[in-house]
């Protein structure tokens, strides 16, 4: 009887495996990719807007740093908030709010009359950008397990597209029209998310988790039609249903959760989660706490290093001129050099994406991340002893290649270790911790370099990246080829 019941049912994972990666997933990838392009453009423009605003409004270096840091403060708040919203009310609702806030505040910041209004609007942009991981989780939940790593790398490549687009846009727009036009035009991708929002489906995994099986079947049927395949026969069931059946019908020790725990979890899911307190409690529960704390360390280090390297691309050259007491170049010459350096370094992420795609499903998430972080350390070592223009470009290019690959993989690993009920909350909080790194890195990259302490800045980046590599090495669980969990699994 048990075998017959099992053969007459299927899970979301079974449906995804039978469907493969077809036209439906391509559409999902395209929409989520636009969101990642929007986030990359809003982040990369900080490299160009800060120096221009400082020059126009006669700002101090601390005030210039705040234009970047305040975005990360907003992202810290937004990443947690949108994660909780998405886990409780749906992935679609989560990224709808992020698109509204990002596009609106991003466009209005182009008309900011003074420094205070610009800071306030960029803070709101940061809150909107904090919802970026929601799109990643949403896309992930439509991808079959065997190719999940590779396709998540392809998704992450949209970030590289966004950075190159922004560098090209700045190079074209800034010299003729100034920073306000750059802010306005950079908000366009966020508006595109709103334009196509009506046709986006909800995650069937989320719908199953909330007991909305009929709606989940509708989404899966649309997926099957677009991909020209047939869904497995029988009725759709969630992993929680399977776990409950196993608990009630068997006393085997291999059951992931006890019946009492499962019942508690089901009752919790039906109740409200005010402020995400229950979700945070699950992330710090004994089953997940080790993975959660190590993941926070990895996110902090990756964010600190990535955004620091992006800022160092412009700040090191400027700092070298200041500290060498050379003649100050013209503003146009300096800006042209800035656009060129950022444009060139942005291309480092293309081989970084290819490299992560080649290794993530072959060697696993842990080994891939750790090797990229330690290699990034190696690339930065020469800058401790010498900082000629050529050496600086080569070192920062290689370091950005590796750190972008590592950042890509950590965004693949994070949603894979958490159950569906707390997946976006888990990623959101980890991303928030990363934003703390983003808040601190402009202060390091700008303040230390401007005070002629470049060696100290480089050594600090080396230390943070190395400790992040150690944290990754101690991750308790490898997720390569594993199915996504709808129930809590002991990661220790």
From TrEMBL:
Positions of the Major facilitator superfamily (MFS) profile domain: 28-480
Sequence ranges of Low complexity compositional bias: 248-260
Region described as Disordered: 247-270
Molecular-function GO term, any one: transmembrane transporter activity
Residues spanning the membrane: 26-46, 66-83, 95-113, 119-140, 152-173, 179-200, 288-309, 342-360, 367-385, 397-414, 426-449, 455-475
Cited SUPFAM superfamilies: MFS general substrate transporter (SSF103473)
Compartment(s): Membrane
Any one GO cellular component localisation term in the record: membrane
Keywords on record: Membrane, Transmembrane, Transmembrane helix, Transport
Mode of membrane association: Multi-pass membrane protein
Family matches, as PANTHER family: MAJOR FACILITATOR-TYPE TRANSPORTER HXNZ-RELATED, SYNAPTIC VESICLE GLYCOPROTEIN 2
Protein name: Major facilitator superfamily (MFS) profile domain-containing protein
Provenance organism: Sorghum bicolor
